[in-house]
Amino acid sequence: MDPAIGFTAGYVALCYGIYYSFFEAFPLVYIERYGFNLGQMGLTFLSIIIGVVISIAIYYAYIYKVVEPEIRKFGLGAPERRLLPAIPASLLMPIGLFIFGWTGSVGHIHWIVSVIGIVIFTMGVFVLMQCIFVYLPLVYPQYAASLFAGNDFARSTVAFAAVMISRPMYIGMGVGPGTSLLGGLTAACIGGILVLYLYGDKLRARSRFSAK
């Protein structure tokens, strides 16, 4: 397996799993810490929609203002250019997780701060996945369908497992330490995105599957 394929599949699966594990953390934070009822807690899920809407606007502006003019002027260019927004997006994910975990676990900090953490994390996940899903078919056009199928299987499997283990993890470790563990994993993946962006052309040159 090419390193780029393995890393992107693992990274997307990790983000997907953490995204779904949030659903188990919400009751522990907003019902037990802040005393919300079920209806009030349900409203906090709107933060995910807000994060997606903001990231759609930012990503669309990037495509319309930066990518399309570059393509018209210079052609498609290197596939690694599509990973440029993924670099700040990879930073947003651990930032959002740490904000959510350590402000939501104490109870005396206003609940809106932890909700902002969810928005930041969601923005990072959305932009990162968009970048990766554009990058892969540009690098491996002949195997795009197989790559998407494998990626979908990996991320769905990890998400299923995350739902099963996340609540016991949060109860055993606490919301703050548990979310910090997840934030640490996403922070460790920042280096992988940088390697793909900076040295992806060299990895492609050594691959027998990538487009030359």
Automatic annotation (TrEMBL):
It is found in: Membrane. Its main location: membrane. GO terms for molecular function: fluconazole transmembrane transporter activity. Keywords: Membrane, Transmembrane, Transmembrane helix. It comes from the Eukaryota. One of its GO terms (cellular component) is plasma membrane. This is Major facilitator superfamily (MFS) profile domain-containing protein. It comes from Hortaea werneckii (Black yeast).
